[in-house]
Amino acid sequence: MRAAVVSQYHYPLNGRATSFAVNTSTSRRRSGAFTVRMGLKEDGPSLAIVGVTGAVGQEFLQVLSDRDFPYRNIRMLASKRSAGKKLTFEDKDYVIEELTEDSFNGIDIALFSAGGSISKKFGPIAVDSGSIVVDNSSAFRMDERVPLVIPEVNPDAMAHIKLGSGKGALISNPNCSTIICLMAATPLHHHAKVIRMVVSTYQAASGAGAAAMEELELQTREVLEGKRPTCNIFKQQYAFNLFSHNAPILSNGYNEEEMKMVKETRKIWNDPNVKVTATCIRVPVMRAHAESINLQFEKPLDEDTARDILKRAAGVVIVDDRASNHFPTPLEVSNKDDVAVGRIRQDLSQDGNYGLDIFVCGDQVRKGAALNAVQIAEMLL
Questions:
Q1: What is the phi-psi region of residue 379: left when phi exceeds 0, alpha when psi lies from -120 to 50, beta otherwise?
Q2: Long-range contact set of residues 154-157: C-beta below 8 Å, sequence gap at least 24
Q3: Long-range Cβ contact pairs of 302-307 (< 8 A, separation 24 or more)
Q4: Domain map of the chain by residue range?
């Protein structure tokens, strides 16, 4: 049995305090037939996890274990204050190392989730060392030289990058809300071509990291006890409230989170003309984002055909029970790989079956971050 990661970090998950460390002895989350465990393998790539003590860094480890990712060794990297702490992963003890310019010697694949400034500084250093970097920050997403990849959506964007070629490279993970949206919208886009997309997001605390999750849990207790809520991460009360996403507001009135949806969709679909508008909202949910998506198509697409297309889509599950009013919820997709889609219905404001409304939920930490990055790494094998 694979041992659980042991560390002193904790974060709240689904409304209760949960070990911040990864429990790699849990059962596999993938559905389907039995798969041979790979894990430590002499001819596998050498890995580095940058930001291993963060929520996404810990989820990297969980996903690597869940998917039996083959590796010959792993280097656990974090800030100076975490260096020296011990961590156990898949029956082996590791010492967390401080991230330095020498951290990537001999590393084949480096999974980054330590913030944009760290990626901008150390990403190119890792590439120069011959590593293929899969970066979870926004640092390189709109760089035309760097592929922006969702494996189920545009795998060809990274077809030119080969493991073992001796050449380092950068690959960017899209923003979490973009990934969750396009997992559902892309299969429909391929069938009828989306010409306009309107997205409203309902984003969980997990999108702002472990500290935000802790603050939501703390505020919930404080409000229920009649105390003034602690507002360190956000400038206003989060518990029992919702507000416009905390990303900076730009001169056009959109915030950075909304513009990520616009720009990243165009790049991933390789369509600079697709019209996208978004409104992004923080809601007091611990983990997993929800999104309401309105689509306008170039060709007619009825809801029954759309439902059939989505049933066949990789990484998508249909939750669309009108009779019992049961549709996707953040709670039900938390810690799940698939993006759930429901509320599939014709847009009554558009004539001739040229519009659809759908509602999606996906785990921001998992498919919106760690899982997508590991899937990219899997395509390099």
A1: alpha
A2: 154/268, 154/269, 154/270, 155/379, 157/268
A3: 302/346, 302/353, 303/344, 303/345, 303/346, 303/356, 305/191, 306/188, 306/191, 306/344, 306/356, 306/358, 307/344
A4: 10-139, 178-364
pLDDT at 20: 33
Residue tagged active-site, from 181, 189, 280, 289: 289
Task: List pLDDT tens digits, range 243-295.
Answer: 999 999 999 999 999 999 999 999 999 999 999 999 999 999 999 999 999 99
Q: Is 289 a catalytic residue?
A: yes
What is the CATH superfamily name and number for domain 10-139? NAD(P)-binding Rossmann-like Domain (3.40.50.720)
Structure tokens at 78: 């974090």
3-state secondary structure (DSSP) of residue 174: coil
Residues in the chain, pLDDT under 50: 1-37
313: nearest Cα among 183, 181, 180: 183
CA–CA separation, 88 vs 180, rounded Å? Answer: 31
Provide the CATH number for the domain formed by 178-364 in this structure. Answer: 3.30.360.10
Using alpha carbons only, what angle is made at residue 132 by residues 166 and 61, rounded to the nearest 5 degrees?
A: 135
Q: Is the pTM of this model over 0.85?
A: yes
3-state secondary structure of 234: coil
How far apart are the C-alpha atoms of 342 and 182, rounded to whole Å? Answer: 14
Catalytic-residue membership of 361: no
For the chain, state the CA radius of gyration: 21
Per-residue pLDDT tens over the stretch 308-335: 999 999 999 999 999 999 999 999 999 9
Instruction: Using alpha carbons only, give the angle 293, 294, 299 rounded to the nearest 5 degrees.
Output: 130
Give the type of residue at 153.
Answer: V
Token pair for 227 = 């105390």
Question: What are the distances in angstroms from CA 158 to CA 49, 115, 147, 171, 326?
Answer: 20, 22, 6, 7, 38
Alpha helices in the chain (DSSP H): 55-66, 116-128, 176-192, 210-224, 256-268, 303-312, 330-333, 371-380
| pLDDT tens digits, 343-370 | 999 999 999 999 999 999 999 999 999 9
Find the catalytic residue in 176, 181, 280, 361. 176
